[in-house]
Automatic annotation (TrEMBL):
<dbReference type="Pfam" id="PF07992">
    <property type="entry name" value="Pyr_redox_2"/>
</dbReference>
<feature type="domain" description="FAD/NAD(P)-binding">
    <location>
        <begin position="13"/>
        <end position="329"/>
    </location>
</feature>
<dbReference type="InterPro" id="IPR004099">
    <property type="entry name" value="Pyr_nucl-diS_OxRdtase_dimer"/>
</dbReference>
<keyword id="KW-0274">FAD</keyword>
<keyword id="KW-0285">Flavoprotein</keyword>
<dbReference type="InterPro" id="IPR023753">
    <property type="entry name" value="FAD/NAD-binding_dom"/>
</dbReference>
<dbReference type="InterPro" id="IPR036188">
    <property type="entry name" value="FAD/NAD-bd_sf"/>
</dbReference>
<feature type="domain" description="Pyridine nucleotide-disulphide oxidoreductase dimerisation">
    <location>
        <begin position="351"/>
        <end position="458"/>
    </location>
</feature>
<dbReference type="InterPro" id="IPR016156">
    <property type="entry name" value="FAD/NAD-linked_Rdtase_dimer_sf"/>
</dbReference>
<dbReference type="InterPro" id="IPR001100">
    <property type="entry name" value="Pyr_nuc-diS_OxRdtase"/>
</dbReference>
<keyword id="KW-0560">Oxidoreductase</keyword>
<protein>
    <submittedName>
        <fullName>NAD(P)/FAD-dependent oxidoreductase</fullName>
        <ecNumber>1.-.-.-</ecNumber>
    </submittedName>
</protein>
<comment type="similarity">
    <text>Belongs to the class-I pyridine nucleotide-disulfide oxidoreductase family.</text>
</comment>
<dbReference type="Pfam" id="PF02852">
    <property type="entry name" value="Pyr_redox_dim"/>
</dbReference>
<dbReference type="GO" id="GO:0016491">
    <property type="term" value="F:oxidoreductase activity"/>
</dbReference>
């Protein structure tokens, strides 16, 4: 028996599999450090985020949010949402699903891009099947970085998979407004897409099996987002289980059967029920790992037992957010470059933004997760709409802030902002939480007048009252 491995067709220092945001940052930073890098992508350079997730979804949401804001501001008139123009702008944002604008960047960085499907083939080896079916065996001298991302997970509702429901891919790139849209799942994708397509006139029904929408956030945030969706005509069926799905060919509709026996029908059924990592056919078994699961990593993004292998972004199942994947890429690159003590994950809890109306922007603990973690906390609730700044932004809307303070350490361990356009609020809180900045120090900083940031003064009051 011949046990010698075949000679690789190519060698390089590092191989990055997947050119989504995590893989792009990894490849760019590796090449920037003079590390010879091959980047392999089977579809579009930019990944799910650029073409089927973050970017198109925000392009669909922003005009509606802007129209809502102009309606709150006296002195602006004649504003209405133009669906066709919004969809056209979305197409611009996703470059009509053409990734050629990304390519000059790849070239400038000196990254070699190979288009094809990659899979591991033992230690530091990667086999690529090109679009023409040709196979290439690559070997990395230093490291292989898995950045293969995730796809929509289809829950085990009988008949659902066979129905071929829409996922984030179809809903973010749709060119027509479905008359009726049925959404399975009231997490982040579900509520954002309900918001967007209801604003274009679709009759939206959302079915969530859990007790509330966006259940990882403060209850108050769930309530406000639910209110916002209902106000836009979205029918919410929360705490409801789907027991079957089928296609009604005569009516050209998808039918979802609920536990009660009731049937819901729509021209389009969207599944927004979480994600599954793209690790099923990645050759993980060739390096002793189980295929189909998130790839477990340590805080250096290294796969335990394989010190040459890294997994970043959605495929390690840690935090399914673009900015976290990009941060993890930097952590991995520092390790590969030999800066062992440089960056270690987690650096701080990830900020989270949900781009509904109202928006939810949060970081760190909610009150519930802090208490579950055994922290003694005080909760400081404040109304953003009571600030002078709210006379000019989000006027007339209830807007909330909740600060979760560790009473022993006197530091902020979580913050949530709910209101129109609060996304930009969260980074200050993220820095305060990650840096464990004492609340007494935060209290020494003035908040600019007249902005809604004066809501932080409530934390100042807490500091003074408890000093
Ligand atoms: C509708 C929606 C909206 C979202 N909005 C936001 C948002 O606003 N903000 C935010 O932070 N996050 C958002 N997310 C989450 C975000 O999209 C992901 O966290 C992010 O895309 C993960 O980046 P990644 O690089 O790990 O993977 P991906 O973006 O999934 O990229 C992985 C890449 O790897 C390629 N690939 C996979 N397998 C192989 C293989 N075997 N060989 C070669 N190439 C391969 C894929 O083709 C893909 O291009 C959203 C998600 C969804 C679904
Ligand atoms: N603005 C953003 O940053 C943004 C936007 C979209 C997605 N994302 C990321 O993408 C990830 C995936 O989003 P997602 O919404 O698909 O997942 P999710 O985990 O946020 O929510 C899934 C929801 O589906 C529900 N669900 C599961 N099975 C169900 C069933 N059979 N019937 C009814 N409901 C069911 C769950 O209870 C949950 O509420 C998120 O975790 C988030 O990290 C981020």
């Amino acid at each position: 028996m011949n046990t010698t491995s075949p000679t690789p067709d190519r060698t390089c220092d590092a191989i990055v599999i997947g050119a989504g945001p995590a893989g792009e940052v990894a490849a760019g930073k590796l090449a920037g450090r003079g590390i010879e890098t091959i980047l392999i992508e089977r579809e579009l350079v930019g990944g799910e985020c650029a073409f089927y997730a973050c970017m198109p979804s925000k392009a669909l949401l922003r005009p509606g949010a802007l129209v809502a804001e102009t309606k709150r501001v006296a002195g602006v008139s004649d504003t209405s949402l133009e669906t066709i123009a919004t969809l056209r702008r979305r197409d611009e944002v996703i470059h009509d699903l053409d990734d050629s604008t990304q390519l000059p960047w790849v070239e400038e960085k000196g990254i070699e891009l190979i288009r094809g499907v990659a899979r591991l083939d033992g230690e530091r080896r990667v086999r690529v099947t090109g679009r023409d079916g040709e196979e290439l065996l690559l070997e990395a001298r230093r490291a292989v970085v898995l950045a293969v991302g995730s796809g929509a997970s289809i829950p085990p509702v009988p008949g659902l998979r066979e129905l071929q429901p829409w996922t984030n891919r179809e809903i973010t790139t749709a060119r027509q407004v479905p008359p009726r849209l049925l959404i399975l799942g009231g997490g982040v994708v579900g509520v954002e897409m309900a918001q967007a397509w209801a604003s274009f006139g679709a009759q939206v029904t959302l079915v969530e099996v859990g007790e509330r929408l966006i259940a990882q956030e403060e209850e108050l945030a769930s309530e406000r987002v639910a209110d916002g969706l209902r106000a836009r005509g979205v029918e919410l069926r929360v705490g409801v289980r789907a027991t079957g799905a089928r296609r009604d060919a005569a009516e050209a509709t998808s039918v979802l059967t609920l536990e009660s026996g009731e049937e819901l029908r729509a021209e389009v059924l969207l599944v927004a029920a979480g994600r599954a990592p793209h690790t099923g056919a990645l050759g993980l078994e060739t390096v002793g790992l189980e295929p189909g699961r998130a790839v477990e990593v340590d805080d250096r993004m290294r796969v335990p037992g394989n010190d040459w292998l890294y997994a970043i972004g959605d495929c390690n199942g840690r935090e399914l957010l673009t900015h976290q994947g990009k941060l993890q890429a930097r952590v991995a690159v520092a390790q590969i470059a030999g800066q062992e003590s440089a960056r270690v994950h987690p650096i701080g809890p990830p900020p989270r933004v949900i781009f509904t109306e109202p928006q939810v922007a949060a970081v760190g603990h909610t009150e519930a997760t802090a208490r579950r973690a055994g922290l003694a906390v005080d909760v400081v609730d404040a109304r953003i709409d009571h600030t002078a700044g709210a006379s000019f932004a989000g006027k007339g809307e209830q807007q909330h802030a909740r600060f979760v303070v560790d009473t022993a350490a006197r530091t902020l361990v979580g913050a949530t902002f709910v209101g129109p356009d609060v996304a930009e609020f969260v980074h200050a809180a993220a820095i305060a939480v990650a840096g464990a900045v004492p609340v007494d120090r935060i209290a020494q900083v003035a908040a600019p007048f007249p902005t809604r940031s004066e809501v932080w003064l409530e934390l100042t009051d807490w500091a003074e009252q408890t000093a």
